[in-house]
């Protein structure tokens, strides 16, 4: 049984194109929708299990039937990562387990009025939790709200299969998280890279920090996500990235059983 990872969205909170911006990257996205970037989110799925990673897409109710969502993993409770839950929660005839970090404030009134969302006990740092065919380990990140990345183990073949690390939103990595990933090297690493190189990155990696982390952890494949229009414009005129690093695109699919991308 194959396991697929899909980038539902690869943009930062502004998305691409940015409303009113006429930079080269935003104009390119208006001409060619393949360069558009929605709110950063993803899906990990097998034939029988679909795990949403973040929920910033506002049209989740149109994208998925109630039976299509097995569970939701939240990295944190900033609006661009949970916006889709505000409509989804008012559904009927289903219950959706929601896993995420320990953040008593959450976002607005989601905890007070969860509807069909069944918020589970918050994940502790480095806690491993089995969800369907996947084992998920919570990895603390550096952000302005309590935030977790996740290391996913693919168990669809009955063995300790491929590992995928999903690490957004973060500025660098806490030492414990970096050490854990170096000791449990992911086959695929998906990493926040919101900005081109800059002297004072805040809350999110710039390209220099992201490439440095990839070089230290040495995944077989790395994909940059949570990308802003300024980084897209910078990359339009930049020499090629390291051979194992790619820029993620909305709708891109990774086949974890074969470590291939399409």
Question: Can you tell me the number of structural domains?
Answer: 1
Low-confidence stretches: none
CATH fold descriptor: Metallo-beta-lactamase, Chain A
Calculate the mean pLDDT score and round it. 94
CA distance, first residue to last residue: 18 Å
Give a description of the structure.
This protein is of the alpha/beta class and 262 residues long. It has one domain (4-255): Metallo-beta-lactamase, Chain A (4-Layer Sandwich). Helices cover 18% and strands 25% of the residues. The protein has seven helices and 15 strands. It has helices at 24-31, 60-63, 79-82, 85-88, 175-183, 207-217, 229-235; strands at residues 4-9, 41-45, 50-53, 71-73, 96-99, 117-119, 128-131, 134-140, 148-154, 163-167, 188-192, 221-225, 245-247, 253-255, 260-261. It has an eight-stranded mixed β-sheet with strand order 6-5-4-3-2-1-14-15, with no helix packed on it. The protein has a seven-stranded mixed β-sheet with strand order 7-8-9-10-11-12-13, covered by helices on one side. The relative contact order is 0.17. The mean pLDDT is 94.
Please give a quick description of this structure.
The chain has helices at 24-31, 60-63, 79-82, 85-88, 175-183, 207-217, 229-235, and strands at 4-9, 41-45, 50-53, 71-73, 96-99, 117-119, 128-131, 134-140, 148-154, 163-167, 188-192, 221-225, 245-247, 253-255, 260-261.
Task: From the structure above, extract its key features.
262 residues; alpha/beta; Metallo-beta-lactamase, Chain A; eight-stranded mixed sheet; seven-stranded mixed sheet; 7 helices; 18% helix
């Amino acid at each position: 049984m194959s396991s697929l990872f899909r980038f539902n969205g690869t943009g930062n909170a502004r998305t691409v194109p940015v409303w009113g911006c006429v930079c080269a990257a935003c104009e390119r996205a208006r001409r060619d929708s393949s360069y558009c970037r929605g709110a950063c989110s993803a899906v990990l799925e097998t034939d029988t299990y679909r795990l949403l990673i973040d929920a910033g897409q506002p049209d989740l109710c149109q994208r998925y039937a109630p039976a299509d969502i097995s569970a939701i993993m939240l990295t944190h409770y900033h609006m661009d990562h949970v916006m889709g839950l505000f409509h989804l929660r008012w559904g009927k005839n289903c219950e959706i387990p929601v896993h995420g970090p320990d953040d008593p404030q959450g976002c607005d009134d989601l905890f007070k009025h969860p509807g069909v969302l069944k918020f589970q006990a918050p994940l502790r740092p480095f806690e491993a939790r089995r969800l369907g065919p996947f084992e998920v380990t919570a990895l603390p990140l550096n952000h302005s709200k309590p935030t977790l990345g996740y290391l996913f183990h693919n168990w669809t073949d009955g063995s300790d299969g491929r590992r995928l690390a999903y690490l957004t939103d973060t500025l660098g990595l806490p030492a414990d998280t970096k050490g854990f990933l170096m000791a449990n090297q992911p086959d695929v690493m998906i990493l926040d890279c919101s900005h081109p190189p800059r002297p004072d990155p805040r809350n999110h990696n710039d390209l220099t920090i992201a490439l440095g982390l990839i070089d230290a952890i040495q995944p077989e494949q790395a994909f940059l996500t949570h990308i802003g229009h300024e980084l897209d414009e910078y990359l339009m005129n930049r020499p090629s990235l390291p051979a194992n690093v790619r820029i993620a695109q909305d709708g891109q699919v990774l086949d974890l059983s074969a470590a291939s991308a399409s």
